[in-house]
UniProtKB/TrEMBL annotation:
Native species: Pediococcus damnosus
Record key words, sorted: Amino-acid transport, Cell membrane, Membrane, Signal, Transmembrane, Transmembrane helix, Transport
Protein name as catalogued: ABC-type amino acid transport system, permease and periplasmic component
Subcellular locations according to the entry: Cell membrane
InterPro entries xref list: AA_ABC_transptr_permease_3TM, ArtM/GltK/GlnP/TcyL/YhdX-like, MetI-like, MetI-like_sf, Solute-binding_3/MltF_N
Amino acid sequence: MKKKFIEIIAIIGLLVTMIPFGNVHAAGANTSSNDQSLAKIQKKGVLVMGTSPDYAPYEFQTTKNGKSVDVGMDISIAKQIAKDLGVKLEIKNMDFDSLLVALQTGKVDMVMAGMNPTPARRKSVTFSNIYYQGGQDIVINKKDNKIYKNKDSFVNKTVGAQTGTMQYNMAKKQIPNVKVKGFDKGADLILALQTNKIDGIVMEKPSAEAYVKNNSQLSLINGNFNLSKDESSSAIAFQKGSNTLAAAVNKSLAKIKKKDLINKEYLKDAGSHMKTNTVDTSMWHYWKYFAKGIGYTLLISAFSVFFGFILGTILAFMRLSRNKLFKAVSTAYIEFIRGTPLMVQIMFVYFGIGLVVNIPALTSGIIAVSLNSGAYVAEVIRGGINSIDKGQTEAARSLGLSKNYTMRYVVLPQAIKNIWPALGNEFISLIKESSIVSIIGVTDLIYQLKIVQSDTYRGVAPIVVAMLLYFVVTFSLSKVLSYFEGRMKHAN
């Protein structure tokens, strides 16, 4: 047993050392003496911007001509920058937590997400000049107006903030004995506040005002935080050392500031879109969002089931093989995949392998979910084969059947019948687990749910719709699987 364990660890170590991490430094740390950041963008003719469209009025989504589009102050600024550079603007949406990783791994050229240029962030990325200065407020339930007056009112209380933001760290440092809960999306924070999971939300002033203006149950107080210039400002992030690109962008920002376009045009335009979103907040009005989400969820699940089953079958036979190398590789793979979270695997495929090969988010999601499913399917198939009595194999061989024919016509048919319910459970679980791909910006059902929450300022209704859609899909699949299970029993 000890020898087998050592073999598994050795195989895993070999696989890890084969991963080409050599370009990590090159991808994320251009030197100023050889900075081609601006030249590369002008050569390809596209400026790729990373953002998290759940932070009105900075960036959010609205429906135009039946299509979901990104709008907001940051989007308007980015369009002007791309115009000044003479290139097209491409926007990649993902969770806020993933934005700087995407920047450092070359998935995006710049990040605009109402990001504060804190000293800690400046160590790993290059920032533009500050383009907007707001402030930090606290959103509370209106019924609590008499209880909370400023940040000092939240001592020994629980506040929420977006994970990975300056607001999260600021609340921890400046409010004594406070418990800070992190959430990925602004809509999740509002829902947590209204369901009394938290007592307040530390949020940048423009976004806080947007939520309060569109939700009569909320109120806003000045947190009176001790803020440096960086902590109350927003800037654009670039890969470390992208000085030529930052300089060119700073010229655009200077022009925008001189004409006061943010106050005169961009914020007003964002406000008009926010009003449009709240005219009709019924879930039926957003049916296209949910339809798109369920479509991507089914697409990811279908491909992952197909490739996962093929990979699982191969791994199962490798683990049952008498070949020690095949057995060791299969065992190492299965144990490693089952021992690491799917979310980490998705991020590794998209960001890690993306250092060498630029894989689109949807493709990365399908690959990661397929690789994960294959490990579990392998164990189900192996267990099914081992469940067949050895006497069946011996009888078939005594009748003159070859080893392959015995497996194909005697063992496998019985094994599949035994493992069918377990395989069905794995496929149903895969549909639900595939929702994790939303962290890299794949517009599956969960991603669309978050967008609808952000656009409508409604927390519970979109969740209910998503739950019902997942139930319809999984219940339908379970009925189909039960039908085929009955056919197998009848055939027997």
